[in-house]
Amino acid sequence: MLLRTSKCKYRLAVLIRVLLLGLPIFHYLMFGDGAVDEGATDKATFSSRHLLTLEPEKNCTRPAILEFPPDGLSRSQRKHGFIIVHCVIALYCFLLLGAVCEQYFVPAIEIICDRLNLAADIAGATFMAAASSSPELFINCIGTFVTEGDLGVGAVVGSAVFNVLVVPACCALAASKIHFNGNEKSYGLDLTNRITVEEQRINELEEGISITSESSMSSILSWPGSKSSFMSRCLWMLTLPLSLVLWLTIPNCKKNPRLYPVTFMMCIIWIAGVSYLVAWIITIIGDTLNVPDSITGLTILAAGTSLPEAVSSVLVTNHGHGSMGISNTIGSNTFDILLCLGLPWLIKSLFYPCVPGHHWVNINSSGLSYSAISLLTTLFALYGSLALNKFQLDWKVGLTCIIVYIGFLTLAALLELNVLFEVNLPICAH
């Protein structure tokens, strides 16, 4: 047994090294040798905060949509109704990410944890949280290496706020009173550390998601039962193509545990590819509506990538494990803040700096610093409402969280749109 465990740990270590080394190599092969434009040789500071742009002489921010291939439609066509197509594709991508993570990636991680003989609480706080937050990691990789904008940072920060406020609110409104034990203290410390780094500038739908839970072809193609609602049948029709594609391309390690390495790698490929597609589509939507990347990340991307966690937390809560569901969701924020932001920034600053010899990463919007501070405030708001309610999560706490979340989105939007004061350079004409 000891020898078997050692072999499993060795294989896991090799796999992690391959993934870490493969990311820079993949970027080099896909996007060239890391050379930058001539306009990137000089940097300018905008206002008193470190707001940087690649071409300060234009006094504007390069639009992220120019870093993606064209979609074949003009902005005028999208504004006249074709943007609905992009919204539908984005919804499909969110459902696909949720299905891959919840039904394939998480079971593969569970098998890995079992092979390593990890305790359930340790596995849930580490590997399981990493698996559920993997879309945020890949989206920030796209935002860091491809668009070099604020899409990924906004998605991570917005997802963290969504997890802190909306998920507990959903659990509170969907269940009776839940006695809550605070496991967010370490997350609060991690968040404080991230805010400090940003201030200084960076150096170095249950049915739609669970439709793929069964492995056999008959269960995927079987029509919902007669007791199913009309909405369930509509979701079954909409998600049938996704379920079929995933069934054909990803082996089910629940039925064949020996295939968990293949399942793990295929999930990585799927999540990476769909994350790129999501970032592309959301960038197009934001460009069509003249919305900064940071706002689309804080709102649409954050809610879309966090939806699977919200659904799973509500399901766990309804089964009588409210503290487990909320703690798992809030605990995943540690992975979001530290690794989803830190790892891409580390690789970018070391291997692909915007200015050769200067190992830092640009953040175009200084408003994200205020959003990060607001994120810490939301954590205090959650704890304060729980303390006033004697640490019982009920509808009163849920309603408070919803109100605070709406306030956060309003404040973030006003900041990013330069309504309160100027924090963003205008987007360059294109």
TrEMBL record:
GO terms for molecular function: calcium channel activity; calcium, potassium:sodium antiporter activity; symporter activity. One of its GO terms (biological process) is intracellular calcium ion homeostasis. Its main location: membrane. It comes from the Eukaryota. The keyword Ion transport applies. Residues 88-190, 261-412 form the Sodium/calcium exchanger membrane region domain. GO terms for cellular component: plasma membrane. InterPro entries: K/Na/Ca-exchanger, NaCa_Exmemb, NCX_ion-bd_dom_sf. It is found in: Membrane. The chain crosses the membrane at residues 12-31, 83-106, 151-175, 230-250, 262-285, 330-347, 367-388, 395-415. Keywords: Antiport, Calcium, Calcium transport, Ion transport, Membrane, Potassium, Potassium transport, Signal, Sodium, Sodium transport, Symport, Transmembrane, Transmembrane helix, Transport. It is a multi-pass membrane protein. Belongs to the Ca(2+):cation antiporter (CaCA) (TC 2.A.19) family. SLC24A subfamily. This is Sodium/calcium exchanger membrane region domain-containing protein. It comes from Leptidea sinapis.
